[in-house]
Amino acid sequence: MQIQGYFDLNFEAVKDAFAALFDDPQERGSALCIQIEGETVIDLWAGSADKAAEQPWHRDTILNLFSCTKTFTAVAALQLVAEGKLALDAPVATVWPEFAAAGKERITLRQLLSHRAGLPALRELLAPEALYDWDTMTAALAAEQPWWTPGEGHGYAAITYGWLVGELLRRADGRGPGDSIVARTAQPLGLDFHLGLADEEFYRVAEISRAKGNLGDAAAQRLLKTMMNEPTSMTTRAFANPPSIMTSTNKPEWRRMQQPAANGHGNARSLAGFYSGLLAGRLLDRELLAELTREHSVGEDKTLLTQTRFGLGCMLDQPAVPNATYGLGPQAFGHPGAGGSIGFADPECKVAFGFVTNTLGPYVLMDPRAQKLARVLGECL
């Protein structure tokens, strides 16, 4: 496999580890970007951008980043907090009055961002096309009763996070949530990151498909078993209501929509650049960055059925939990996306890391491919 791009010779072992990913015949395409104190030491890509292996992965290939999007969304919300347009501990209903229904009058933005609001799923099954209708989804969530007492425990809001936080952004900032997030995070840093992708960019989007035969770890198998056997459970509803969530990533209407939990499009470079910008204080002041990265939730996740640890819209490292460590240091924070893509920062090493792949793995939190690359990076530092 021909590896393209740039690497600093001090990090040749990372380049070799990246090349070794393609020893697996199922690996289609991926890219890796690592910045240290804002300087790029690795910027590599390889493989194919499509399922048929006819289109090579190019320098400017982008793809759906899934939940890597969530931290961009949280940062935009915290910027609005800094501007006094939102407040972390004020009721959501002060900005979104309809949200007060069904016992939600005291839920706060902080609870939404840290997955403590009790709203990871909708009980009533919606039509597949509801996924693309912003007003339908936000109205359903405004009417929904929390699945547990808000503030008591946490459960990952895999996709509802996008409508919940996105509707607050829309109301506070007066523009589409994706427009707000891109203007506040990507544009100031010059990142190739999109949330609501223009049709003229579709030609460079990598097609995403699953690897076959790998059942993943115990956490992945537990989640799959629940979804197969308990169709009305909160966990199943979180990922399969509307039922189109799991099958939409390559569709034009998914690319066009602004779903700030899960459909940001970018590449490894945009992820590393975002986290470099955070570490350099270019997106949030020190106080708000400390809020973003402070532990808000830890323990058994009511949705994912595994141990998770969250700040505000970011996942925090759990060095002692094999499926939940970024592989560098205990201060690391960032967000994995479904199937393997990941962006994170390690403030101790001053590292910003972005890895993207169009070969979906089955893991619930961290993908072993990215963990291995981060471990090798640690050995080079």
Question: Could you explain the architecture of this structure?
Answer:
The protein has helices spanning 12-20, 69-82, 109-113, 134-143, 160-173, 177-189, 218-229, 234-240, 252-256, 268-279, 286-293, 368-380; strands spanning 4-7, 29-36, 39-47, 63-64, 209-210, 265-266, 297-300, 307-310, 315-316, 333-336, 342-346, 351-357, 359-360. Helix content is 32%, strand content 14%. Strand 2 (29-36) and strand 3 form a beta hairpin. It starts with a strand and ends with a helix. By secondary structure, it is an alpha+beta fold. The protein has a domain at 4-66 and 217-231 and 261-380: DD-peptidase/beta-lactamase superfamily (Beta-lactamase, 3-Layer(aba) Sandwich). The protein has twelve helices and 13 strands. The radius of gyration is 19 Å and the shape is globular. Keywords: Hydrolase. Residues 18-372 form the Beta-lactamase-related domain.
Topology of this protein?
Layout: E1 4-7, H1 12-20, E2 29-36, E3 39-47, E4 63-64, H2 69-82, H3 109-113, H4 134-143, H5 160-173, H6 177-189, E5 209-210, H7 218-229, H8 234-240, H9 252-256, E6 265-266, H10 268-279, H11 286-293, E7 297-300, E8 307-310, E9 315-316, E10 333-336, E11 342-346, E12 351-357, E13 359-360, H12 368-380
Parallel strand pairs: 5-13
Antiparallel strand pairs: 1-3, 2-3, 2-12, 4-6, 7-8, 9-10, 10-11, 11-12
Domain Beta-lactamase-related: 18-372
Pfam family, one: Beta-lactamase
Protein name: Class A beta-lactamase-related serine hydrolase
